[in-house]
Write a structure and sequence with these properties.
This protein has 226 residues and is mainly β. Helix content is 4%, strand content 35%. The protein folds into 2 domains: 84 residues, RNA polymerase II/Efflux pump adaptor protein, barrel-sandwich hybrid domain (OB fold (Dihydrolipoamide Acetyltransferase, E2P)); 82 residues, RNA polymerase II/Efflux pump adaptor protein, barrel-sandwich hybrid domain (OB fold (Dihydrolipoamide Acetyltransferase, E2P)), CATH 2.40.50. The protein contains 1 helix and 16 strands. The radius of gyration is 40 Å and the shape is elongated.
Length: 226
């Protein structure tokens, strides 16, 4: 039984990687923690380490473009077989942050032998509005350079400045989820003014017009000749 070496996920927008260089040859004995291969994408370069002791069998050669999750090699041997038989720890399910919540940006693990990383360059400024999937910062170690993307949209608060060495798992920034920077607030919509209803035109009464005087009864007596 053998242990598969697969291309790891490197971000939501990355779907493939290039097998840039094998540091071991097919058939070589490898030890747990040995660097096996360098993978490159358009955003990050990553080095994969052996997950167990054993004999390396390379499946995908250098220069080939492969999809995330593809098996590029196998490690065979008693230790590798035991590691393959062990149930994989379930990956944590990401929980969507509620609007207005604080999301922490932490330094991800980059291998068992790597304990810290350097904040090489921030791609956004403190207080900027960021969109989910945007590259925020470049982290560098002695083995790999990595770019972290925003897990949610919101306002960025930088904690660790450029050039600072930080431990794996350290919080280097926070994002106020759902918030918008002051300069990016949308302008309020202009109130709609209803046109005044047109009053029916009234016919003006003629000036000095008077109602006709009622007729007076005729009380003239007629003389009757007898």
């Amino acid at each position: 039984m053998s242990l598969d070496v697969k291309v790891p996920a490197a971000g939501e927008s990355i779907t493939s990687a290039n097998v840039a260089r094998w540091h071991k040859k097919s058939g070589d004995p490898v030890l747990k923690g040995d660097i096996l291969v360098t993978l490159e994408t358009d955003k990050v370069s990553n080095e994969l380490e052996a997950a167990a002791d054993g004999i390396l069998e390379i499946v995908v050669g250098e220069g080939e473009e492969v999809s995330i999750g593809t098996v590029i090699a196998r490690i065979s041997g008693e230790v590798a077989a035991a590691a393959a038989a062990a149930p994989a720890a379930p990956s944590p399910t990401p929980v969507a942050a509620p609007t207005g919540g604080i999301v922490e940006l932490t330094v991800p693990a980059a291998g068992e032998s790597i304990t810290s990383a350097n904040v090489a360059k921030w791609r956004k400024n403190d207080g900027d509005t960021v969109t989910k999937g945007e590259v925020l910062v470049t982290l560098e170690t002695d083995k790999v350079s990595n770019e972290l993307e925003a897990p949610v949209s919101g306002v960025l608060k930088i904690i660790s400045p450029e050039g600072e060495e930080v431990s794996i798992g350290a919080v280097i920034a926070t994002i106020q989820a759902g918030a918008v920077a002051a300069g990016f607030a949308p302008a309020p919509a202009a109130p709609t003014v209803a046109a005044p209803a047109q009053a029916p035109s009234a016919t003006a009464a003629p000036a000095n017009s008077q109602a006709p005087a009622p007729s007076k009864p005729d009380f003239t007596l007629s003389l009757i000749h007898i």
